[in-house]
Structures are given as structure tokens and as C-alpha cells.
Amino acid sequence: MRKTFERILGGAAVIAGTALKWGFVFAKFFGFFISAAAYSFWFHSWTFGVGLAVLILVHELGHVAEARRQGLHVSWPMFIPFFGAYVTIQRAGLTPFRSGLISLAGPFVGSLGAAAVWAAGSFQGSNKLEVLANIGFLLNAFNLLPIGFLDGGHVVGSIREAWRMPVIRFEGGVPMQAFAPDRTRAVQLFVLYAGLAAAIVLCLLATRPSGAL
Fold first, then answer.
1. Residue 212 belongs to some domain of the structure
2. What is the pLDDT of residues 32-67, one digit of tens each?
3. How far is CA 19 from CA 15, 23, 35, 94, 119, in A?
4. What is the number of domains present in the chain?
């Protein structure tokens, strides 16, 4: 009787732990599920809706990966249906170059995701996947527009800041002397920004839909 009772308690504990674990995951990614459902309703295809939500997630994970590579604290992506998603990054104390890399990482990784969908669509002869890839490239290209709240706006701001920011010499953590700006980083950011934008636009044009879904 005692062993049976212990088994019941053990099973209940496992079930409760599993429920808590997956309940936490569901709560954390609730916005993702809502977005996927909204896109599925809008495009009349649950596979297309989920695919679009995944491509947006891949874009945001690009920001997360680069921020964490730099040792920064960053939140998991938060989804807003029909408006995309965002992550919160502690950028205080970042150099313009490092901040610019974080902003570029989203469109870069997001476009890699779209390219993977494009390759799968070409291999399978799936027009739906090719259209999904095209929308993925479109979203990443849009994000690179030089508008303040978009990734492109942040990159352009970082380029301007790197171009103007003087080089400071520190001694014991105290700024002692300012030198002329080192504009090499600004040029590097501009080349990365322009090159990535051009590549995404070319992919966008190459994946233009040729028929119905």
C-alpha cells in the first residue's frame, strides 16, 4: 500500500513538473503562438502563418545571438501580432560599432532563414515556400530602411556616432585626453550595412512570386 502511494505521488510530481515546465514555455512564447494564429487566419494557411512567425523569430534570434556573443543581457523575443517582434538589449556603454553589429545581426540571420526557405521551395517546387521566402526577404529589407525605430535607423545612427565620436584615452578608468575620431569603424559599418541591404534586395527580386499560392 505504501509503495503504491509513493508511486502515485511520484507520478503526480512528474506530471506537475511537466505541466509547470510547458506552462512556462507556453506563457513565455504566448505572443509567438498568437502571431502564428493571426498570420494563419490572414493568409488562410496555418503552415504559411507558422512559417512567417518562425522567420520573424529567426530575425530576432539574430539580435539575441550577437548581443549574447558580446556578453550582454538580452530578453527573449516578444511578439506583437501584425507588428513583428522585438528584443530588449542593455546597450549602455556600448561602442557605436558593437551596437551597429547587433542591429545588423537581425536582418542578416533573418535573411539566412529566408534563404533556407527559398532553397527548400526550389528543391520541392513549392510556390508557397518561395512566396514565404520572398516575404521573409521583404521584412528584412524593410527593417534595414534608415528609419529611427528600425534596425536600419539604428545602424545609421551608429555610423554617424562612430564618425563623430572622439577617441578617449583613459587612465585608471578616468578619461584623460580626447583624440580625433577613428572613422574606420564608421566605414566598416557602412560597408556591412550597404552590402547586406544590396544582397537582401537582390534576393527579394529573385524570389518575386510568379503565381498564386
1. no
2. 777 778 888 878 888 888 889 899 999 999 999 998
3. 6, 6, 23, 40, 37
4. 1
